[in-house]
Amino acid sequence: MYADSFAHPDQFVKIVDQPTPRERMIQVVRWYLSSYHAGRKSQVAKKPYNPILGEQEVGDGPVPWCSPDQLSFVAEQVSHHPPISAFYAEHVNKRIQFEAWVWTKSKFLGLSIGVHNIVPWIELGGSVVIECVQTGHKANIEFLTKPFYGGKKHRVTCEVFAGADKKPYYTAQGEWNSRMDGRWTDSGRSEVLFEVSSMKARRKRVAPVSRQQGHESRRVWRHVTCALRGADCDAATAAKRAVEQAQRDAVKARDANGEKWNTLLFSPKGDDGWEYMTPLSKRVPSAKTTPQHKNGETAENTR
Predict the structure, then answer these.
(1) Reported CATH class of domain 2-302
(2) CB under 8 Å to 25, separation ≥6 — which residues?
(3) What pLDDT sits at residue 209?
(4) Domains in the chain: boundaries
């Protein structure tokens, strides 16, 4: 799912092409908010492929077959309890990289008692802050959940500030899965921040399953995927249980031998963070990084 954050690689690499800090920050916001729809095409709650410890997703690199003019992506499940996913992306020629670690917290907001045939839906709700440590520019983003009666789903508002300014120089609102409109405060100029219907998502390129390592996602879950494609839910459930039981057995074996799990692509950073072991910024000193984003209470809300 996190690889889908780069379903519009053109929006990501355009960040470094913007001439001013303000325009770069708005492009970061445009890329960030327009990325959600690619990985969340369904509006109902479904049982996911639960990532297993050490599982990896490798798309277009950083791997030997990736060229310097491609956006590359890798991810690893670095912790199972709590569930933490770390991922990294880079474009060598544009000298831009991105790294993040995510832990998901779900909230059940409840269903009306006595109402039958309700299908739960997924919503994003909470706050996100995107901040550039070099310039002090900051975007405050609010994902607004739908009330039980009235209102719309998937609404988002955003205010972008420069330094310690109390007045935003840019505001935006709309729905992350359809369209958001923005407005420059000083000039009053309005614009379409993005419109999903006019944006074509780029498909990920990965190695064939037969050439993947045993810990890569499509190889780990290949039997589950095959069963789902054949509409065989019983076989999919059995295959999923087999993967999860193998994980439990591996944990017991490590505990019995006094062994610890060692991550392959990411290493701990500070008290609660993770970083890619060989980022572009270490290999090419002039590489740029995107502004950091801090998740507040952002969660997947299930109704």
Answers:
(1) mainly beta
(2) 130, 132, 135, 137, 139, 160, 291
(3) 85
(4) 2-302
